[in-house]
Amino acid sequence: MGKKGKKEKKGRGAEKTAAKMEKKVSKRSRKEEAVVVPQGGGQLWVFGGEFASPDGEQFYHYKDLWVLHLATKSWEQVRSAGGPSGRSGHRMVAWKRQLILFGGFHESTRDYIYYNDVYTFNLDTFTWTKLSPSGMGPTPRSGCQISVTAQGSIIIYGGYSKQRVKKDVDKGTLHSDMFLLKSEDGREGKWAWTRMHPSGAKPTPRSGFSVAMAPNHQTLLFGGVCDEEEEETLEGDFLNDLYFYDTARNRWFAGQLKEPKTEKRKRRRGRKGELRGSDEQAGEEPSPQEPLEVVRKVTTEDGTVITIKQVLPAPGVAGRPPSKDEDDDGAEEAGASLVAPCPRSSAMLAVKHGLLYVYGGMFEAGDRQFTLSDLYCLDLQKMDGWKALVEMDPDTQEWLEETDTEEEGDEVEDGDDDKEEEDTGEGSSEEGSVLMGPRAGEAILA
After folding, report:
1. Which residue of 72, 77, 137, 236 is most buried, as measured by CB atoms within 10 A?
2. What is the pLDDT of residues 261-270, one digit of tens each?
3. What's the whole-model pTM score?
């Protein structure tokens, strides 16, 4: 093969590698946003989103607005001119009698664009309005946190974006800044951005995290993934930690689970024993305990074994090795106390009566993405440990394989978005047997 042929082959290989990396990141941040409001017996509002083929080569961005009437379990499409362009990865929240939408991105096979625009949708008049807040706001991004404070302001935190650094090379950015969007003088038409500088134990930079409103108007952040990106590789460090943001104090707190009472009693007994035997053990250093490693294995249809590992601090008595009886009992109790959702991104969160529910999400093993269907619960008042309500069942998982062949189907260009029929009615709607088309996304309770 000549030099030209080798160079072309190498170029195609680099393009494929870059495409795989981009698909991996994009799948984590591609979502439509849904908001639940109590009016009319309960409504679930959904805007935009994206439909993608299993290989990630064909996709389409939507700019339609739908509402699911929970009382009748029927979908209704609401048509209103002047709304946001087609996008996914945006965020939306209920504010008074309006929906507030921020950011997102649109991508085609040729190019991409990230947004930092703000729209409101009036739930009484069914009309869109584009806001022009004063002040310096967030840079364009997708997949950020959006929540409403007790004072009626809106918090924007984090997110993900990318930019082209040179031809065919993009660099992703995990944002960790925070902004406050506030209605000036209580007037709904005038808004202003303010940069926030919260104190406390801040979350590490990440994308794909999930958000819910905790009691006392605190915002809860769970899990996510931090990507370690190199020239031709992308490895994700998945997380399952908890953080709380107190809007009144402008402070982050790490969510720490309380130690089981049985362990506390063991520690007290251990300290007493150490006092009694201090003379005998003088000059001896206590043997440190090894951290506990929780391992779950899942076997796929083709025989591949996926291993999920969690390394957690040993719950035994600090400062001395446990006795044999304590070791046996401790292992048994440790197994019970170590119940927790495995690290994941894009999980579904809901808080009801002070209980946090975490459902599903995804994690990666190599080039494979594994979708979870388990359900966990945590009492936010007691913080005494997770409870597994529905365990993960490996037998129900189905792998969708991606192909590297160049003989794939013709790609669907996102330029078709512009050919979409323009909405001419103001506040019109269609209801009945109409169904919203399939797309990627999550629902947020607001």
Report:
1. 236
2. 655 555 555 6
3. 0.71
